[in-house]
Design a protein that fits this description.
Blueprint: E1 12-15, E2 22-26, H1 40-46, E3 48-52, H2 69-83, E4 88-93, H3 95-106, E5 111-117, H4 126-139, H5 142-152, H6 161-169, H7 172-184, E6 198-203, H8 211-221, E7 226-230, H9 237-240, H10 242-256
Parallel strand pairs: 2-3, 2-4, 4-5, 5-6, 6-7
Antiparallel strand pairs: 1-3
Length: 262
């Protein structure tokens, strides 16, 4: 059987003051680092912001073999090493949130504060993820892109086009490999080991990871975690209700992340 190989240090972008405490932002499956553009101005005022790309997304290369969410978390740790950052805050959406949870479990000394947005300790049964991986390997990103707006946003949201374009532009091999990683991801029994002060953000109308059974499991399982449910938001709550999500994240970081940049 083919053995997983470590994901490479991810492609990344830097914003904000060079001497400020570092905040790492992880995107969701199918999106790029631009998913965080609505929050970037507020975050970059006070923190050094590191946004990274998933394999095959945003022009990032695809590893030569399969990888796990843990491998992606190791890649973020390697990125911090490359940047000379010992400890950072981390915020991630969906798959990006799973990477953050895994990083907090594998390297707790690296995560000073954690934000888990529209994510889950386990993204359902493996079968549908493997089916989606097979779909994009066989037919490309078209079928997934066509369904993205309905999966990610509430019916009345009019700003889906840029995010649909992100998934349409993803490399099918990289997207499929990320699906396979999600199929294997399960942190449900390890949540109590997360020591970082944690904010869980959920979209009230999130279909892929609804608050009940996903966000509430994170908030209940992580010691002292706080849960914020954003009304009128689907799976990409930070894009659909940017003001509410930005306010929740900045308030959490103001309370919990006074670290240093190096």
């Amino acid at each position: 059987m083919t053995q997983p190989v470590p994901a490479p240090v991810p492609r990344h972008r830097l914003d904000g003051p060079e001497d400020a405490p570092v905040v790492v932002l992880g995107p969701s499956l199918g999106t790029t680092a631009d998913l965080w553009q609505p929050q970037l101005p507020a975050l970059a005022e006070r923190w050094r912001v590191v946004r990274f790309e998933l394999p095959g997304h945003g022009g990032a290369p695809v590893p030569d073999g399969p990888f796990t969410v843990g491998d992606l978390a190791d890649g973020v740790a390697a990125l911090l090493d490359r940047l000379g950052v010992a400890e950072a805050a981390y915020a991630g959406v969906s798959l990006g949130g799973a990477i953050g949870a895994e990083l907090a479990l594998r390297a707790p000394e690296r995560v000073g504060s954690l934000v888990l947005c529209c994510t889950s300790p386990r993204f359902g049964e493996p079968g549908p993820w493997r089916e989606r991986a097979a779909l994009v390997r066989g037919k490309g990103m078209g079928p997934v892109a066509e369904a993205a707006a309905g999966r990610w946003f509430t019916p009345g949201f009019g700003g889906a086009a840029p995010y649909v374009a992100m998934v349409a532009a993803a490399d099918p091999a990289g997207y499929a490999a990320c699906c396979d990683a999600l199929a294997r991801f399960d942190a449900a029994d390890r949540l109590g080991e997360i020591a970082a002060p944690t904010l869980v953000v959920a979209g009230a109308e999130d279909v892929p990871t609804p608050p009940r059974g996903h966000a509430d499991r994170l908030a209940d399982g992580i010691p002292d975690a706080r849960l914020v449910i954003v009304e009128g938001a689907g799976h990409l709550a930070n894009a659909e209700r940017p003001e509410a999500v930005t306010e929740a994240i900045t308030a959490h970081l103001d309370r919990t992340w006074k670290g240093t940049s190096r």
